[in-house]
Amino acid sequence: MERLRTPEVRHPVYSEAEREGIRNQMERMLANPLFKNSKRYPNLLRYIVEHTLAGFTGELKERTLGVEVFGRQPDYDTNADPVVRATAGEIRKRIAQYYHEHEHETEIRIDLLPGSYVPEFEIPAARPAPVPAALPVPFARGKRWRIGVPAAVAVLLVAAGWLKPWAPHTALDRFWGPVLDSSSTVLLCVGQRQFFGTSAEPQQRTDTDLPHAPEAKGGSERPVTLFELYYMGSQNVAFPDVRTLARLTGLLQANGKSHRIFGESSTTFADLRSGPVVLIGAFNNDWTMRLMGPMRFSFERDHDTFWIKDLQNPSTRDRSLNYTTPYLKVTEDYALISRVLEPTTERMVVVAGGLSGYGTTAAGEFLTNPVYMETLAKQAPKDWSRRNIQVVIATKVINGNSGPPRVVDRHFW
Q: Cβ contacts of residue 49 below 8 Å, gap of 6+?
């Protein structure tokens, strides 16, 4: 088979001691149960590490890796056969799990950042000898190896165990960590209208706001037509929910995380138990309403008024929206963001739902923008990323368009 090659790009080679240390660390990782029971993960990791150590990072592209590592044809369809992306995503997840264990924290770190197939290496600082009059400046080796004189004090703190030898993940990474680190596929459940039929399905609420198909003669139910199903029925999804879905699927794809998309009406309890779940929408998503009901913050409705209920102030309705308001007259909307280990499903559940579509759109922006998540981290307890989280956000609405989200309340436990 013809081997696909890209122009070779050489970077400064590592010293023999550096290469040996990184290779030993790679083999240590591959001997771990997270990697050793697979053929794909070791093959890809070895290939990209060796090529990086040799300075040939120009070959580390998806198509080249598909041909060289997985034996695909040079013209194979990378969209139809995402073997490289899927394997790299699993490697990233297993790397995170490996270094999460306390005994591996001081080892050489091999990282594979989202969106790249070029690994990066971090060597922890050695414990310091008595401090000399002038500290030498460590040799710079790419962006992860640059340590200048101003960092000398930080090196000492690292060696003393007061700081980690590598920078922590962003607040956005820490929020999504429990979802991305899971070995299961993520389910994205999108809100839909209630099924358009002659009667509610078993255990399903009845919504008197929606019309139902007429009964056939004799009082028996007649089959729902395609017109009723697709034009007026539960196959419809609100555009703000689609925008939020696109943002969240983009985030998962960038992190190499496998996912599937279901509508609320076709999602079962067994589906929710199969792995992490992201619920999009509030009043149009019965799973959001059910799972958030016992939480401190939840969604409530009284005729035309919709609001976010706070169990600590149950009589307050200041975060509300009246649905009789002309949509161009709406000036503010609210949304609830949650990330909880839900006790009923025993799975991690993320919720992005607004009182209306404006709030859901703002929730999607908040959940995918690292700047917004940093604002939450600054207001959160030190160990917030390991707790259950609920955040109430508000967004200004101008002429039918939602503005930037802002945090108005939060709860960690």
A: 22, 23, 26, 110, 119
